[in-house]
Design brief:
The chain is α/β, with parallel strands linked by helices. The protein is built from 16 helices and 14 strands. Helix 1 packs across helix 2, helix 2 crosses helix 3 and helix 5 crosses helix 16.
Length: 342
Amino acid sequence: MASPTRRELAAEAARLAEKGLLSLGYTEAELERLAEGTLRIARLKKETDAVLPVHVYQRPEVICGVADFVGDSYKLARDCSQVRAARIVFCGVRFMAETAKILNPEKEVLLPAPDAGCSLADALKASDVRKLKAEHPGAPVVCYINTTADVKAECDCVVTSANAATVLRRLYEQHRKIVFLPDEWMGRNLARELGKKVGRDLILWNGKCIVHENFDAASLRVLRRAYPGVKVLAHAECSPALVRLVDFVGGTGGMMRFVRGTSAPHYMLVTECGLGDFARTELPEKNFVPMCRLCPYMKMTDLARIEAALAAPKPAQRIEVRPETAQRARRALERMFELTEG
């Protein structure tokens, strides 16, 4: 592959600056260095007929530099269901790449960082779901999208933080009891929102997100005094104690819509740091108060790994889901789309 010309590098560095990376603290020299990688990746995407879905928690240079579409888990699942490219290189974590493969069994799906996992997905096995189904016969089993393909295959419906309340409301029209897995705190937040009793109406598992379980509700009171008028937005994976103190709770897409549609002197996004970086590049006129935690799994993907996956993917980077598992998991995903959009 021919090296980029100085003119091409300068133009690409200017594009990255315009995307907002300078405002995040990247220097012009760093942008020039990053431009070499983003240009090579752009060429490889064309040569290999690849598309790059990128989650909002990814590194800023990945989002601004090489993404074909950016979003939360629901948006990326929907976008991936409509992809025409032959190859999907998913910039996120394993369960997201598995979801893309389930929705596109005929396509090659690559995960640049094959060790990028998720504490919630690790909290539950398919055998656990089967046991719960036996203990609660007739109750629909709803799993958060942060689960493995094997778990999704055992469930009746998948949800994301963006649509969980909508889906559960519709299911409660026909069922008195629902099993919700694996995020306990999201489940407790949903129970409070829907007026349901945990243990009777909503059966939960004990999974937690390693990012969102570490936010401290007490610190919010201090920060509100330091920033009068601040609007605090929290992800639905945060603790119920914290969620009771915020102005908005939901998924990352909903958080961005709230910020876009309101006016406040400051905004605090209580979630993974990537959303704050994304918000600052998308909404430079807004003021954001730092209150975030880094996800070590989300930050595993960098430009070098993306380029390597495009140029010569290793076996570990190829996502495979057994056909029978994929077929059953796809039914649960399609049920999500039906209940959300129907």
